[in-house]
Amino acid sequence: MLKKNLEGKPKIAIADSQFLVVDSLTRLIESEDRYCICGIVDNRKSLLELLKSGTTDLLITDYNLVDYESPEDFKFIMEDFKNLPILILTNQITTGELERLMKSGIRNISLKTDEKKDLLSSIEMAMRHKKHFSEQVLEMIIGINENKGSPSEASNLTYSEIEIIKLIAEGYTTKEIALKRHISTHTVMTHRKNIFRKLEINNVSELIRFGVRKSLIDYTDYII
Questions:
Q1: Average pLDDT over residues 163-183
Q2: d(Cα 213, Cα 139) in Å, to the nearest integer?
Q3: Could you read off the pLDDT of 184-219 as tens digits, one per residue?
Q4: What is the value of pTM for the model shown?
Q5: Which residues make Cβ contacts (< 8 Å) with residue 148, sequence separation at least 6?
Q6: What whole-number distance in Å separates Cα of residue 125 and Cα of residue 147?
Q7: N or C terminus of the chain with fewer C-beta within 10 Å?
Q8: Alpha-carbon gap, residue 34 to 11, rounded angstroms
Q9: What is the Cα–Cα distance from 67 to 112, expressed in whole angstroms?
């Protein structure tokens, strides 16, 4: 178990048994000089000991490479440690695993194949208790909802438009969306106008109601 005590910085615990990934992730996090690593473990018992020993602001873990008993472990961890945000960082994920994790309360899932900027964005969003998924995972979520009968209106929306709907629903401003999506505010406004036109709605309240009704967004769970 590795611990580093750097005052004033959010503390991240890593639970993963894949040495090269852990080493690379540690270097990536420390290179940003915004967070500190409070511990690295490779098993469930050591993880619980680490979490009990002090404040951890974020847990990054691969559920496939640590001896968790079930996805419900994450629900108990979040309950026992004051809604501790958990970022699942894994090599791959199946639809069944995705559904079980999300039903256990997981709202942040990224892949180890993601680009550096995407991984850093995932960490930031998890720290802020904001939902965030890798593009590939988000496409799986959309596919699950479509298979459950999402109405045809949603099929007229592009992936970018659906992502912007989610960000609007989470309270991001036009400027913040532009920064997050690496596009101009003008492009965000254009997407917004196209969304409103396609859905024949006039305001954000109607947009949020549409998203929830069509299973595009849900404040308690993306998968209904």
A1: 89
A2: 18
A3: 899 899 899 989 988 888 888 888 878 877 777 764
A4: 0.66
A5: 215, 224
A6: 28
A7: C
A8: 10
A9: 19
20 domain-assigned: yes
For the segment 21-64, what is each residue's pLDDT rounded down to a tens digit?
A: 999 999 999 998 899 999 999 999 999 999 998 789 999 999 98
CA-CA distance, 195 to 210, in Å (whole number)?
Answer: 11
Q: Is residue 1 part of a domain?
A: no
88: phi then psi, degrees, rounded to nearest 5: -80, 120
Contact 13, 56 (CB under 8 A): yes
**Do 105 and 147 belong to one domain?**
no
Residue 97's domain comprises 11-133
CATH number at residue 46: 3.40.50.2300
- Same domain, yes or no: 53 and 157: no
Q: Which residues make beta-bridge pairs with 60?
A: 14, 87
